[in-house]
Design a protein that fits this description.
The chain has about 350 residues and is an alpha/beta fold. It is about 45% helix and about 15% strand. The chain has 14 helices and 14 strands. The strands form 3 sheets. The protein has a 6-stranded parallel β-sheet with strand order 4-3-5-6-7-13, with helices on one face. It has a 6-stranded mixed β-sheet with strand order 9-8-10-11-12-14, with helices on both faces. Strand 11, helix 13 and strand 12 form a beta-alpha-beta unit. It is elongated, with a radius of gyration of 25 Å.
Length: about 350
């Protein structure tokens, strides 16, 4: 039987003929199906390589019921996504792991409530196999949207929105935010610092809440005036540091809830003529290379494996997808460890 082609494009029939197997067997091998003996698998794969066969996406979707795409939803405005290296690192980990699973990344971000209908339509339209969502805020509608359209989803960060503890399966990946914060503050205490301030992150995100809890775990009687609010940006860290110095000019250390705010704090301290760490010791959180390598002095910080957490999110999602529709539970969520990285700022 002659090998069939469509124009210059080889067909699945051509692969089957070259390998000496049935079209059904060739289809199972090409689409990752089971139940084919190893020698036949090798023959089909050799035929695919020799002919340069590329599977038809639409046909493959009918066979596998997969689109080969995953939505990555970031609940932050565009300027945050492209200015904060945290998102770059996490998306890099997600992208690399999706590539290893032969799946594509579809990036969606939420500028505001007006985007929710668009995302609901897209997720409900069957365009993706699942979703990864992170940087959610407590009042975010995304969890209820995801639940309504029934798209398998893994979250980045411990769920903290209303209803998160209602029994709904919400697999997530996070780091030990509270434990890392405790380690940071204990380090400052070990240096003999007595007036330790905290620049907190947004109070509607669990990572920031867990870090301020870690600060308070160590400093049980901390002065409320030694805590100032930021929003995880450099500018908010600089502003919060100025507020702290105005309220408590004698403070001798500060733990910032992320590296960007710590770098802003360093800028304010330098402008005020204060030496780091001699006058004020500074510790951040994240250990993002693009930030800590540019601070003066080099920043002591709590390291979390941001890229690794992105990879873990994909692995949890693939476990859900591979276990199929009969799977009723959720894979165990993962909390990754943190490590204090000591440099010159504290």
């Amino acid at each position: 039987m002659p090998e069939q082609t469509t124009g210059s494009r080889p067909t699945l029939e051509a692969v089957a003929a070259r390998a000496g197997v049935s079209r059904a067997t060739a289809s199972r091998v090409v689409n990752g199906g089971a139940g084919v003996r190893r020698p036949l698998v090798d023959k089909v794969r050799q035929a695919v390589e020799e002919l340069g066969y590329v599977p038809n996406h639409a046909a493959r979707t009918l066979v596998t019921r997969r689109n080969g795409a995953v939505a990555v939803i970031i609940a932050e405005p565009e300027f945050r996504i492209f200015s904060d290296p945290f998102f770059e690192q996490q998306v890099r980990g997600i992208s690399r792991e999706l590539t290893a699973h032969d799946s594509q990344l579809v990036l969606l971000w939420v500028e505001g409530p007006g985007d929710h209908d668009r995302i609901a339509r897209y997720l409900g339209g069957g365009h993706v196999d699942g979703a990864l969502a992170f940087s959610l805020h407590n009042d975010d509608e995304l969890p209820s949207i995801i639940s309504r359209v029934k798209v398998p989803t893994v979250f980045g960060g411990r769920p903290g929105w209303p209803g998160a503890s209602s029994g709904l399966a919400l697999p997530y990946v996070d780091c030990d935010n509270r434990g890392g914060a405790r380690e940071a503050v204990r380090h400052l205490v070990s240096l003999g610092r007595e007036h330790i301030a905290h620049i907190a992150g947004p109070r509607d995100q669990t990572s920031a809440l867990d870090r301020i809890d870690g600060y308070r775990d160590v400093l049980l009687d901390a002065d409320p005036d030694l805590v100032s609010q930021g929003d995880f940006t450099v500018e908010s860290g600089a502003r919060a540091m100025a507020e702290l110095l105005d309220r408590r000019p004698g403070l001798d250390a500060v733990f910032a809830s992320n590296d960007l705010m710590a770098s802003g704090a360093l800028r304010t301290l330098r402008e005020r003529g204060l030496r780091v760490p001699q006058d004020v010791a500074v510790v951040g959180f994240d250990d993002m290379a693009s930030v800590v390598e540019s601070t003066d002095p080099p920043l002591t910080t709590v390291r979390q494996d941001i890229e690794g957490m992105g990879r873990l999110m994909v692995r949890l999602l693939m476990r859900v997808l591979n276990e199929g529709e009969e799977h009723t539970g959720a894979p165990a969520s993962v909390i990754t460890p943190t490590t204090l990285v000591r440099r010159a700022s504290a």
